[in-house]
Design a protein that fits this description.
GO terms for molecular function: protein serine/threonine kinase activity. This protein is of the alpha+beta class. Helix content is about 25%, strand content about 35%. α1 packs antiparallel against α2.
Amino acid sequence: MQHGLIDLVTNALLHGTGDDRGERVTIRMVVHREAGNLVVEVYDGSIFFPVVTAPADTAESGRGLALIQILAANWGYSRTPYGKSVFFELPAWP
């Protein structure tokens, strides 16, 4: 869970305004339990949805969403009134 959370927050900080002008980024993170899963959601101000990429073997970044896609029970994104939300779910312990 920790790596997935770090990946979503890093993506929100890097791409959360939808441009590369270096503007201030505001994010919101929510963690809750739902139907036996732990759900992690990160909200940012960008209207652009994330894209899973296949980086070069020597690339130092770009693997976060691919790892979330492999390890999470579910993941996705949705538009919000202020941008978007990206989430992933992991099975929760009782």
